[in-house]
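During the reporting period the student researcher (J.K.) took over the structure-prediction task from the postdoctoral fellow and processed the backlog of single-chain submissions. One of the processed entries is reproduced below for the supervisory committee.
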Amino acid sequence: LAAAAVPAVWAEERPAPVETAAVSARAEAKAAIARFNATLLDIMKRADQLGYEGRYETVAPVLRDVFDVPFMAAKTVGSTWRTLDAEQRKRWVEAFEGYTVSNFADRFDGFSGETLEIVGEKPASHQTRVVLTRLTRPGEDDVELNYRMRETDDGWQVVDIYSDGTVSEIALRRSEYAAVLKQGGIEKLIASVNAKTAERARGTD
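J.K. obtained the following structure tokens:
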């Protein structure tokens, strides 16, 4: 994943960290993703025991710690974010978080010898870092899941995910949500995303 491939949805420049913090930053970013990877492997191995609801409840608190959910939610709606009042922002962040957690709970629903490993880490633009991971599936092609991270008051947190190494989750969601926002605004988007999350829960187990 080259820094040049990162989509232009990142408007904020952050102050450059002091050089002495570089090693610590790399370690903290990788530690956060290692924790998240361990959680995904756990729900895969205990998928049947946990069921969809159990997988959801296991992933949710870890994702909340490791992901900068409010930042990601704001980015997916672009300039619309600035027009929302505090209550609308709260409800949209909750809807976005619920859907994001459900995505992992739904997809990581069984174990057949898979491994999740961190294979690298490198700096990216706007003082972010990208942690490179690989999902190895016996008998199938490997999957690259790369996490773009930034330093926040709560440590290094994920602000985007790149499937297959380069496909930005934020860019995909922003494109998907644009049409809904144009048709019915944030209320329609919240209702639509919540409905998808609920449907996923009903249809999984």
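The committee noted the following: The first helix runs from residue 22 to 45.
J.K. will present the remaining backlog at the next meeting.
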